[in-house]
């Protein structure tokens, strides 16, 4: 039997129970959703970071293997240090797995990988900005002498040209690399030049 004196207490208790159930459910949602998102859409669980590269960009995976097998450990490899982005028409250096991908996977030196990481460790950022400008100039310039000067400055041995570099730096400077060296690795939309 409903008693009007106890009805507000029961309604309050029911309201609090509902709040606790919603709160408990909301807190536990993350656990279940996290497990689901981490286990779905993954063919292979591995600690090998290159398995992702092998599946998503097999040409780059082959290039990485080629570099490991065929280059000296001190060979300097130039690769793009920017990615195309809407926020900045000249490219962004946000965290992106394609930045410094060859250097990171092979341990070979490069002029500049992920600039954001370097900024965390240096008080003076002018050297990073200078290197960013030099990388852009090497890829974009059509002036062979200017490219040779910058390549010599950093003792670059190999240059990577992929869609990533062409999207950011453009393709008008691409032709000069034929005069600077020879293609040692080629896959669709991916070239590596060894410089003379």
What does it look like?
- With about 200 residues, this protein is of the alpha+beta class.
- It is about 55% helix and about 10% strand.
- The protein is built from nine helices and four strands.
- The chain has helices at about 5-40, 50-55, 60-70, 100-105, 115-120, 125-140, 145-155, 165-170, 175-180, and strands spanning about 75-80, 155-160, 180-185, 190-195.
- A hairpin with a 2-residue loop joins β3 and β4.
- The N and C termini lie far apart (about 95 Å).
- About 20% of the residues are buried.
- The mean pLDDT is about 85.
Topology summary:
Layout (H helix, E strand, L loop, with lengths): L6 H33 L10 H7 L1 H13 L5 E3 L22 H6 L8 H7 L4 H15 L3 H10 L2 E7 H7 L6 H5 E7 L2 E6 L1
Parallel strand pairs: 1-2
Antiparallel strand pairs: 2-4, 3-4
Helix pairs in contact: 2-3, 6-7
Brief characterization of the structure:
The chain is of the alpha+beta class and 196 residues long. The protein has helices at residues 7-39, 50-56, 58-70, 101-106, 115-121, 126-140, 144-153, 163-169, 176-180; strands spanning 76-78, 156-162, 181-187, 190-195. It has a four-stranded mixed beta sheet with strand order 1-2-4-3.
